[in-house]
Amino acid sequence: MQKQFDLTNKNAWVTGASVGIGRAYAIALAKAGANVAVVDIDDRTGEKTAEEIRALGVKSVFIHCNVCKPEEVEAMADKVVETFGRLDIAVNNAGIGILGPDESYPISDWEKVIGVNFTGSWLCCAAAARKFIAQNKTDAKPLGGKIINTASMSARIANCNASYDGSKGGVVEMTRALAAQWGRHNINVNCISPSYILSPMHASTPVEVRERIRSLTPMGYMERPEDLAGPLVFLASDASNYVTGVDLLVDGGHTLNAWLTPLGRDVPPRVSPEEEIQSLVHDMNALEVPCNEDGINFDYHPEIANAYKAAFGIK
Ligand SMILES: NC(=O)c1ccc[n+]([C@@H]2O[C@H](COP(=O)([O-])OP(=O)(O)OC[C@H]3O[C@@H](n4cnc5c(N)ncnc54)[C@H](O)[C@@H]3O)[C@@H](O)[C@H]2O)c1
Question: Closest Cα to atom 38, ligand 1: which residue?
Fold first, then answer.
């Protein structure tokens, strides 16, 4: 059974892998045995993450690529195959959020969010599929490949604004459309939907808000990037060969909760608040962005900090 999850000799790319969820994905694939290309626009932290992955005993390379730019995505895909010999797993995770009310939301912000989250994911899916289809022609037994996109619980609940929620809804439906088309090439296309993850994206979220999220989440703690490691390795491995077009929600039960009051607990959650923030603090240090002991810097995403402070009456 364990062999089904083994990724030894598999070659992967992960976009948005310098920090946060992408870095945790890259480390998870490497720990399962895969060689991993760290793909990002942040070269300095990306190089560090690639180095961290090489220390795990697999091959890793950093590739600069803005996923919105077709020519950069194409060059990235070529570079991965040139470096590792082939591509088996494409994790399309790069994403951004820009807060703001829709009635006054600038079209430039709309285009940025849709550009990275939706168009960028599609460009990476298509580039990966072209590699898998080409490899099938020379494989003794066509292996196809695995594509895993990052969506969000925001694809199914109103959580941010229309650009973010809509882009993630688009990723889920795009995943299903591509899965239906590319099964004939032995390509599986799935996505993972996290909830509120303590990555740098949430570095400006006040502790009061984190406490509220914990209290409304059945599993009782805030999701960490590493909570996605198992689901990702499952979808990247032979263990999921018959799973395609699926949106795997990994939210600790958060979106199940229709009660408006804190849930209470009988036992402590599996992860303590101190353990929750380890990855976030690591990433803030890697980014060389100062933060307090909770991993918070309100100036990192001031619009998130201000929106939460206004909603919760925090000074
Ligand atoms: N943090 C959360 O609460 C949360 C929840 C659900 C889904 N997500 C999704 O997970 C993914 C990763 O989020 P995160 O929390 O790790 O974010 P993050 O901001 O901490 O990290 C995102 C990474 O993507 C890179 N990136 C941004 N734009 C890029 C581009 N155009 N091309 C290549 N790389 C780019 C950044 O440099 C950064 O390294 C995103 O798609 C996000 O929407 C996040």
Answer: 16
